[in-house]
Amino acid sequence: MKIIPVKNYAELSEIASASIVQSVKEKPDLLFCAATGGSPTGMYAHMHQAHTVDRNLFSAMRTIKMDEWGIIPSEHPDSCESYLKKHLLGPLDISEDRYFSFDTNLKDYQAECDRVQAYLDEEGPMDICILGLGKNGHIAFNEPGDYLQAPFHKAILAESTIQHDPALSQGAEPAFGLCVGMEGILQSKKIIFLITGKGKQEAYRTIMEKKITTNCPATFLWMHPNVACYVDQEAI
Length: 236
Ligand SMILES: O=C1O[C@H](COP(=O)(O)O)[C@@H](O)[C@H](O)[C@H]1O
What we know:
Layout: E1 2-6, H1 9-26, E2 31-34, H2 38-53, E3 62-65, E4 67-69, H3 80-89, E5 99-100, H4 109-123, E6 128-132, E7 153-156, H5 159-163, E8 176-179, H6 182-186, E9 190-195, H7 201-208, E10 227-232
Parallel strand pairs: 1-10, 2-3, 2-6, 3-5, 6-9, 9-10
Antiparallel strand pairs: 4-8, 7-8
Helix pairs in contact: 1-2
This protein binds ligand LXAUTJHC.
């Protein structure tokens, strides 16, 4: 993992977007695993800007949804689905046939995870995987614990993850989500890891100890040969 310190969120968003634009120029139909949350929003806005300049840039890119809350319907404004429609799929004109997602409304969560995993087995590995950092060191919904899971799976969410978004406390108990597993993440050809904002300092310090532990799933990224980790000054 290469740590790339940047001044602030604006710089992080711009540099990360530029790296994706470069990759998509080299491989227009790349498979892009999209995270949600505050960390990638600015980066997606820069990608949108690039799309307004060159309408062909993202016309073949394929997108896979990284994770979804299982406790609110996908139509909910706070769902990952709604986020991606608003910040990525709509702005970049990603057509439905180039977007692959699990539908948490279907309730057969294992079948949905198996379906997305089968897609990844067939079409993968992912060319680019975007990751944010949870305050407790999680990546996607791979939460700290005794062990981590390899495939797409249903994940029980940590309290700090639920508190990240007040809408989630209105849902079912225990709160859970569906997400890509560690295998899908670590098999990605390139990972763009965004660490931004004050709430990430403790997890960032743990990562920088360079000890690989399931208590901080993000530490596994040290084992990947191509991770660009952009970290802004507030997170350090
Ligand atoms: O709970 C989550 O948090 C992380 C970080 O969120 P952010 O809003 O600080 O970017 C996110 O990357 C992850 O997918 C989600 O599970």
